[in-house]
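Example 9 (inverse folding). The structure is encoded as follows.
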């Protein structure tokens, strides 16, 4: 990208100020249910989103996150439940009258329209005059750093540029709620990283309530104020990214968000557990099963590793991740764990190296033995 959303000009700052002045409507989903034949896409979903909050719905394919977004937008009707915006039930309100902007995965730009006309389309549908419409569309293109692309058609722009045009079009109508349906998944890795940073900066600048649907945990954790993890049409947990990572409420959340090791262990008295030759306390609030045989769920950074002759494991593989290297170790009992260490320390731990692995801290969760 040659231009940047974050570098606003006077025109871009002006339109941002106007949007921000009336932005940030609270959104509530109450007991939403939706079935498609025998498939129950949503099963009593309830969620409150604060004014100006950036909330990500995260989960695997088929978990119901996109269905929830489409019901909020008005493109799907719930079988039961309601959607309220700023305290008003909009469940029966047509999509065009819900005061929401939506950005799709596939851009959905009109191929026969320039960037300027695409951005101004919603204003045209609302009866805005040509001069006023073009001025406002130009301001929005400036805000997303695409002034020089105003006269270009979609096929003349890169994927990242097209998605920024789609974002500007969604914002042109000054919506109080912005809905993002996997808007970055069709882009290459570098552009996706740039655009997710720019969307977050723009959202904070505007203060607009935003619901972002994604299956990419890195996107959700890096962009959102809170993340709702969904499974089988229900919310497993809603929390701030750091809380979700450090204190997952369920084993599904623990293993879906970030990398997690499952290590066979035994329960000891006084809330202790023992695994790979180490005893440790369970994490605060972690409910341990009654059985003596359990699995510990431990993050790669919560394991110690040391090269030792005759240790309890053998290095089988290494993955260089920049400043950190992820080391795969096969323990006795044919259990493989992943351990993260600073790359400078991991340089000597080549495949075949004998190592000693131990617990460095409390496990994230204690679960029933699989």
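The amino acid assigned to each position is listed next.
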């Amino acid at each position: 990208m040659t231009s940047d959303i974050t570098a606003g000009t006077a025109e871009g700052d002006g339109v941002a100020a106007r949007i921000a002045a009336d932005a940030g409507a609270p959104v509530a989903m109450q007991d939403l249910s939706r079935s498609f034949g025998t498939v129950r896409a949503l099963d009593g979903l309830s969620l409150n989103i604060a004014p100006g909050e950036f909330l990500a719905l995260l989960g695997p394919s088929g978990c119901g996150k996109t269905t929830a977004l489409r019901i909020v937008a008005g493109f799907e009707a719930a079988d039961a439940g309601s959607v309220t915006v700023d305290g008003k039930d909009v469940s029966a309100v047509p999509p065009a009258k819900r005061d929401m902007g939506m950005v799709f995965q596939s851009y959905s730009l009109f191929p026969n329209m320039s960037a300027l006309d695409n951005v101004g389309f919603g204003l045209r549908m609302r009866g805005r005059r040509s001069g006023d419409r073009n001025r406002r569309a130009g301001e929005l293109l400036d805000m997303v750093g695409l002034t020089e692309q105003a006269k270009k058609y979609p096929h003349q722009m890169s994927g990242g540029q097209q998605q920024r045009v789609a974002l500007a079009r969604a914002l042109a109508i000054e919506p109080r709620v912005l809905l993002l349906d996997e808007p970055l998944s069709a882009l290459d890795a570098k552009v996706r990283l740039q655009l997710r940073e720019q969307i977050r900066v723009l959202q904070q600048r505007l203060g607009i309530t935003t619901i972002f649907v994604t299956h990419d945990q890195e996107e959700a954790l890096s962009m959102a104020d809170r993340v709702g993890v969904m499974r089988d049409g229900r919310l497993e947990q809603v929390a701030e990214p750091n809380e979700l990572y450090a204190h997952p409420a369920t084993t599904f959340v623990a293993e879906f968000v970030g990398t997690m090791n499952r290590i066979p262990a035994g329960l000891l008295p006084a809330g202790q557990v023992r695994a790979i030759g180490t005893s440790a306390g369970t994490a605060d609030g972690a409910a341990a099963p009654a059985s003596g045989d359990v699995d510990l769920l431990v993050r790669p950074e919560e394991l110690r590793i040391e090269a030792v002759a005759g240790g309890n494991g053998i290095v089988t593989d290494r993955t260089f991740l920049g400043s950190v290297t992820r080391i795969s170790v096969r323990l006795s009992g044919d259990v493989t764990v992943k351990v993260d260490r600073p790359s400078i320390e991991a340089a000597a731990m080549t495949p075949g190296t004998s190592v000693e692995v131990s617990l460095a801290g409390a496990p994230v969760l204690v679960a029933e033995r699989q």
